[in-house]
Write a structure and sequence with these properties.
mainly alpha, two-stranded parallel ribbon, 4 helices, extended
C-alpha cells in the first residue's frame, strides 16, 4: 500500500488500511491528520522535540539516498531502497560485521535462482501516467516502470 500524497484524504484512507480501528495515533501538527478523530482514531499531537528520532532517521535516509544513488533514484524502486536502508540501519551497531555480508548470501543460496527478466515488477499504480520513468534505452517493455 502506497501513500499518494500528504493530503487529509490520502492520509486518512492510508491509515484506515493499515491501522487497527480505535487506535491512538501520535503525530506532528500537520493539518492532514486532523480528520483522524472524525474517523474513529485517537489522535495525539506531539511537540517537535519528541520527534527528534523520526526527523533524524528521515534526514539519514535522504543523505543515504543522495550519497548512494547520486540523484539516480527511481520512484518505482523506492520500496527496495527503503528495504536496503532499513537493513543497513538495523545493523549499524552490529558487533559481528562479517555477518552483514554472510547472512544475505546464506539466504540467497537457499532460494532458486531468478532470471533477470523476472526481477522487474509490474507497473506500480501510483506511478501510472508519470512520464519518462523507464530510463533504460534498450528496454522497450512499457508494461513495467523501473
Amino acid at each position: 500500500m502506497h501513500l499518494e500524497d500528504a493530503s487529509s484524504v490520502s492520509l486518512t484512507s492510508f491509515i484506515q488500511g493499515i491501522v487497527q480501528p480505535c487506535s491512538t495515533i501520535r503525530t506532528d501538527d500537520w493539518t492532514g491528520y486532523n480528520a483522524l478523530t472524525d474517523n474513529g482514531f485517537g489522535h495525539v499531537v506531539l511537540p517537535s522535540n519528541e520527534l527528534k528520532l523520526v526527523h533524524l532517521i528521515s534526514a539519514l535516509l535522504k543523505r543515504w539516498l543522495l550519497g548512494t544513488y547520486q540523484g539516480a533514484v527511481r520512484p518505482s524502486h523506492l520500496a527496495y531502497y527503503l528495504d536496503e536502508f532499513t537493513f543497513r540501519f538495523n545493523r549499524r551497531t552490529s558487533t559481528s560485521r562479517g555477518k552483514l555480508f554472510y547472512r544475505p548470501v546464506q539466504q540467497a543460496m537457499m532460494v532458486d535462482p531468478a532470471p533477470a527478466n523476472t526481477l522487474k515488477g509490474p507497473a506500480l499504480p501510483f506511478l501510472e501516467g508519470a512520464d519518462n520513468l523507464n530510463l533504460d534505452p534498450i528496454d522497450e517493455d512499457r508494461d513495467h516502470n523501473i
